[in-house]
Specification:
about 675 residues, mainly alpha, about 65% helix, about 0% strand, elongated
């Protein structure tokens, strides 16, 4: 029968057989002079002392004595760094045994000694072979040391070990590691080169960055809340070493990026000048929160303003930066300011400047959106024309930088018929030019009203310049600008489909232009204000809307213009935030034809009556009504104008109804102020 041969137990020397094979055939000269041969012999000795797991042998019971003997007898091959690293590995092994025996204090001491030993060993690793991966797959000495330390939660020690080794490949130390003239002459074709040194430095720094990131993530996961922990030590070591590492200027940025990804709060706690330049480039929002969180609102405002005006940013990002800058500046004014030589102090004038810059930037956003829409329409033409090319340049300019308000108005908004943006620009600049504002409002309203009508007489009116002349326009020959891209899309004036878009546009723009706070729409003036802003000429707008409403009602067979006045002009202007006093006076004076004037008086009476009803239960409205009565919003004055009204045979029922309404209003007013 077959016999089973007992397997011969593997002898310790077989652990280095794989490392001895490459040495076969080398001459004595090569063993003495060749760097490659030196590294092969060294690999054999290191495997003999600390075999890899793939060698499939147990560690010897006497490696410490062997390491001491190799260090004494084979110093050329088994260098001091290897002996120190091996001694450190033995201390880690002893620490594990002590920890299993619950002798934690002694285990911590052994781990501390092991960490110090690995750092000392790293200072002796001057050859790129100690750092770079070997051809035979053997783990480099530095990687083995860092892995051993990190496996025992000693990330900070791993960082110090990697940085100590990196110091051998930077500056003058790198020249020593590459070798002097005598060493280069000794090696035959295998002397270390500057590229080897650069690769070794990169490997060391990669190990340090990896260890920093790992230690930061570990500390976050275990939620250590001590004032200073190992992750802080690791970051501090990297920041200190970055000063001397001239060959890798991006090292500190890589470390800070690892900190930003793992634990942004810890990054912000670093009192380093390098943190601010890094965050300006990689995460400005985090730096802004850093300044704001420490009460440095002036610095936060300066940072966001710089980013808003820097080159390369998109317009939406610039607007976002200006929003934060204005907010930070307001906070700086309302809180004690921290003196900072790099950031100007914030005062009311600076806040105003930032608000104006933000308002203009928002107008630029609107212009850009509108220009893109116009460009889209222009590109639909079979052959792109000069207008399309101009719009492309405009869009590129608006996206690439913040433009001045004059350039925005003249070269974009006015040039391409963005009348609402032109009016908003007048408001932002505080430009008081009523004739210009009237022209802009006329152009805006005319664009939304079709000039086509079934009635030839009405069509002639809509296309004639005198129909669009409004109070306050000094140029009767040219009261508006023509739109070169106007399109009624087959609408007729009599259909009335234009009314809702017109009301919505006037209401929205009026609320924006009537805002008290710069750039903050929706805040209107009090009802007793006898005027609106210069960009919102209420008298002219009311006259134009009333003219359109009266003409539409007169042309509609289903409407009785003699018995009822169309109320939508007054409702539209109230929605726009027009003060009731100013609106009452504007409607009372609106109209050139008798029927227009009658409709304007009827609407003024309705506004005044609703105001009196509101004042019955609202003390604030009652006070504003009292002021309005003193400034001309008087039901008796409106009634006097109606009694002398000559409608030339038209509007009799409406006159009578309006007089009755005014009499009732007068009674309400008398009851309010006689109490």
């Amino acid at each position: 029968g077959s016999t089973t041969q007992k397997k011969v137990e593997q002898k310790p020397c077989t652990a280095v057989d794989a490392h001895l094979k490459p040495l076969a055939g080398l001459t004595l000269r090569e063993l003495v002079c060749s760097r490659k041969a030196h590294e092969l012999v060294r690999g054999c000795l290191r495997a003999l002392v600390a075999p890899n797991a793939k060698d499939k042998v147990k560690p010897y019971a006497w490696p410490h004595d062997l390491a001491r003997e190799l260090g004494a007898s084979c110093g050329l091959f088994f260098r001091g760094g290897d002996a120190l690293a091996h001694a450190a590995s033995l201390k880690l092994a002893r620490a594990e045994k002590l920890a299993l025996s619950a002798r934690h204090a002694e285990a911590d001491q052994e781990i501390k000694k092991a960490s110090e030993g690995y750092v000392l060993a790293a200072r002796a690793w001057r050859s790129p072979a100690d750092v770079l991966p070997a051809a035979n797959g053997q783990t480099p000495a530095l990687a083995a040391a860092c892995n051993a330390l990190r496996a025992r939660n000693q990330g900070a020690a791993a960082v110090r070990c990697a940085l100590a080794c990196a110091a051998n490949f930077t500056g003058d130390a790198a020249e020593e590691s590459v070798g002097g003239d005598w060493e280069s002459a000794l090696y035959r074709g295998t002397a270390p080169t500057s590229s080897d040194s650069a690769a070794a430095l990169k490997a060391c720094l990669d190990a340090a960055v990896d260890a920093v990131g790992g230690e930061l993530r570990r500390c976050v996961s275990v939620r250590e809340h001590t004032e200073r922990d190992s992750a802080d030590d690791a970051l501090a070591a990297c920041c200190a070493a970055s000063v001397s590492i001239r060959n890798a200027p991006d090292f500190l940025d890589r470390v800070l990026e690892a900190a930003r990804e793992a634990d942004p709060a810890r990054l912000l706690s670093l009192p380093l000048p390098a943190v601010e330049p890094f965050l300006r480039k990689r995460d400005p929002a985090l730096l802004w929160r850093h300044h704001a969180g420490r009460g440095r609102h002036a610095a936060a405002a300066a940072l966001m303003e710089d980013l808003a005006t820097a080159s390369g940013a998109k317009l939406d990002d610039r607007v976002g930066c200006l929003v934060r800058a204005a907010d930070a500046a307001r906070r700086a004014c309302s809180a004690p300011q921290i003196v900072d030589d790099q950031a100007p102090l914030c005062d009311a004038a600076r806040v105003r400047d930032l608000d104006e810059l933000l308002a203009v930037a928002r107008l630029q956003q609107r212009c850009l959106r509108r220009a893109r829409d116009l460009l889209h329409d222009a590109r639909r033409l079979p052959v792109p024309d000069e207008r399309s090319r101009d719009l492309e340049r405009v869009c590129q300019t608006l996206e690439s930088r913040l433009v001045g308000v004059s350039e925005l108005y003249n070269d974009v908004a006015s040039r391409y018929g963005m009348w609402d943006v032109c009016l908003a620009t007048l408001k932002v600049c505080g430009h008081d030019d009523e004739p210009l504002a009237v022209k802009l409002w006329t152009s805006l309203i005319k664009r939304l009203v079709p000039n086509n009508a079934r009635d030839p007489e009405l069509r002639r009116e809509l296309t004639s310049a005198p129909f669009w002349v409004a109070p306050g326009c000094t140029d009767a020959q040219e009261p508006f600008w023509e739109d070169d891209y106007d399109d009624d899309q087959g609408q007729c004036f009599e259909d009335g489909a234009w009314r809702r878009p017109l009301r919505d546009a006037v209401s929205a723009l009026g609320r924006e232009l009537g805002a008290d706070e710069l750039g903050a729409p929706g805040v209107s003036r009090g009802d007793d204000a006898p005027w609106t802003g210069p960009a919102f000429p209420l008298k002219a707008v009311a006259a134009l809307l009333q003219r359109l409403a009266t003409r539409a009602a007169d042309a509609d067979p289903a409407s009785d213009a003699d018995s009822a006045a169309p109320k939508w002009p007054a409702d539209c202007l109230l929605d726009a935030g027009a003060p009731r006093l100013a609106l009452t006076l504007a409607l009372a004076d609106a109209g050139t034809s008798p029927l227009e004037r009658l409709h304007g008086l009827a609407n003024a009476a309705d506004v005044l009556d609703a105001w009196a009803q509101k004042a019955r239960d609202d003390a604030r409205a009652r006070a504003s009504l009292a002021a309005g009565l003193r400034h001309g919003a008087d039901p008796d004055a409106l009634a006097a104008a109606l009694r002398g009204f000559d409608g030339r045979g038209r509007g009799g029922p409406l006159v009578q109804r309006t007089l009755e309404r005014l009499a009732l209003t007068s009674e309400r007013v008398e009851a309010l102020f006689s109490r």
